[in-house]
């Protein structure tokens, strides 16, 4: 059995992008570690021991069978045209020095003796600035730690377009049009791994439902979350029961 580390941008990404994969790995007996770059908050951390979104992340992770959760120490950079100043207690992830952040992540990879790193494709999936930074930091951390296997979570663009069309028919208010996805995610030719995780759809949906602050919010993404967690399990599995990766593992020279 091996240790697999999944590096994500925000609490809730672990469920949306890799939830089925993490549940499957845990079910197969592997040690699963989730590292999140940000705590998902735009402002200063509350005075209590842990921010609400990190607490929700730990609940979600437990439902998926994750063994350890680590916050890398950064603040959410937000998604939109405005990049706000850093909160007084920490730097926004997109402003972090890539080498410094990569060394933080590499330290965890080494400590865990991780056999595989999961992170994001070069587009950061749908293009969030923190997701793109996860790709940059993850790639460098894997180099520093000499991690043997590196897989980038993504989705074929044509599949993303079909899912957006289906979501719109189900009145799930996604912000993207199918046409906008032409420059996001990855071409099908780049995909190396396609996992059917419908067996773990209930776990993935329950993990998503653990992010109560997102579900109970007032923004457009909260409306999406509410719709997703209320879908019948088979329909949720139809929408989010497959996960895709690009294998970018380093080529090792043969030993003499």
UniProtKB/TrEMBL annotation:
Keyword Zinc: yes
Keywords: Zinc
Recorded GO MF terms: hydrolase activity, acting on carbon-nitrogen (but not peptide) bonds, in linear amides
Name of the protein in question: PIG-L family deacetylase
Pfam families: PIG-L
InterPro entries on file: GlcNAc_PI_deacetylase-related, LmbE-like_dom_sf
Residues annotated as transmembrane: none
Zinc listed as a keyword: yes
GO BP, sorted A to Z: glycoside metabolic process
